[in-house]
Amino acid sequence: MNDPRLAELSRALPDLKLTTDSGDLEHYGRDWTRRWHPAPLAIAFPATVDEVQAIVLWAFAEGVAVVPSGGRTGLSGGAVAANGEIVVSLDRMNRVLAFDPIDRTLTVQPGMPLEAVHKAAREHGLIYPVDFAARGSCQVGGNIATNAGGIRVIRYGNTRQWIAGLKVVTGTGELLDLNRGLIKNASGYDLRHLVIGSEGTLGIVVEATLSLTSPPPPSQVMLLAVPAMDALMRVFAEARHRLTLGAFEFFTDRALHHVLAHGAQRPFGEISPYYVVTEFDAQDEAQQAAALELFEFCLGEGWVTDGAISSSEAQAAALWRLREGITESLAQYRPYKNDVSVRISSVPDFMRDMQALLDAEYPQFDVVWFGHIGDGNLHINVLKPADVDDDRFVAQCEHVTKLLCDTLTRHGGSISAEHGIGLVKKPYLGSVRSEAEIALMRGIKAVWDPAGIMNPGKLL
């Protein structure tokens, strides 16, 4: 600890785990974007709320920027520390603090992995329904910071719907206890919802009270091969009419190609341009029959060409792998990612315009897209060829992102559906928010974080 500021922090907090090891700086100074070289001052691993407060108070006094760090599975550069910041990793704050069977809430520390939250809820016969493929490595604090959505938004909504209370350390080191788990609380501004989705720019979440719910009825998973883009929303409309949906996802043949290369099993003999994987309630014979009737109807209309329905948990997992394995299968290519959303009713027109744009601008690149089509969220992954220079690749992709923003604006959409703004999408915030909205955001940040130390340069 050659830096006298760090020496002072160590003296003030002798039990604090603090490291400047080069490997730790590299690991904890970046997220999944891999586009910025990490260069933090140090990594702190607080174990208590008091330690988090003391770190922020020290940072406030010393003028050191603070980057909160969870599982670092973010895709927008929101957890990057590239300018001498202190990274506050919440890895050690990873426990369940309380369960209330009457309120059906689980109070946890922010470093708890989402998968561990799922397990803790199941032990009480309940579920925490927010879910996505990175459940094993992402953390609750990061989910809250980005208002993460996932694969079952169509049924359960985003993270925001399941946060009953938060404790947050602001940029001045003050501890706020927000909403306290109340269902009804008409006592002024609900500051809890400012923190959700704020990407660590207002403060550090140090405790979260999560609402739990009853497990859904037995379900089945159905995979459908869809021959044309126009048919996707027709299948969705018919499925929503006939079934009680828990999820409705889609992916392209290119996505399937990479997942199969990564070890998944081919579902059908013939390749289709598009695929749908949907999960639906199947607690009785009538609901199971409705799924078969849906398939037969869509087959008769020419909207699907093949299908499969799970008859066991293992088969359901195998079908879900075709969708959930996409991101992992693409990681080796360091893809440039867009995460966009439009109103569900605008999806067909937007997808046509988007496909035309991608075909025109990326003729030489492999473009993989998939998404939560039932809530209007699409993910676009552009894979970098091995012989293309990183800077030239990113420059081309950013040029296309500007054009994509124009397309989104015409359709009333957003450049960030669930990954946040971070560093990657900051130049495009004005395509979603008005100047007046951004000015208000800046004013809010100035109140919560007057020294501007909380995750600076991100979002705003």
Distance between the termini: 32 Å
CATH C-level label of the largest domain: Alpha Beta
Q: Which percent range describes the beta-strand content?
A: 15-25%
How big is the Rg? 23 Å
Query: Could you give the order of strands across the largest sheet?
Result: 13-10-12-11-15-16-14
Mean pLDDT: 95
CATH fold category name of the largest domain:
Uridine Diphospho-n-acetylenolpyruvylglucosamine Reductase, domain 3
- Tell me how many strands there are: 16
Structural class by SSE content? alpha+beta
> Counting H and I runs of at least 4 residues, what is the number of helices?
15
Number of domains: 4
Described by strand count, sense and barrel closure, the largest sheet is: 7 strands, antiparallel
Poorly predicted ranges: none
Percent of residues in helices comes to: 25-40%
Protein name: FAD/FMN-containing dehydrogenase
Keywords: FAD, Flavoprotein, Oxidoreductase
Cofactor: FAD
GO biological process, one term: respiratory electron transport chain
Short synopsis of the structure:
The protein has 460 residues and is α+β, with helices and mostly antiparallel strands. The chain has helices spanning 4-12, 22-28, 49-62, 114-122, 140-146, 153-156, 192-195, 229-242, 253-261, 285-301, 313-324, 326-330, 347-361, 390-410, 435-448, and strands at 17-19, 42-45, 66-69, 86-89, 96-100, 105-108, 163-170, 175-178, 203-211, 219-226, 245-252, 274-281, 306-309, 336-341, 366-372, 377-383. A hairpin with a 4-residue loop joins β7 and β8.
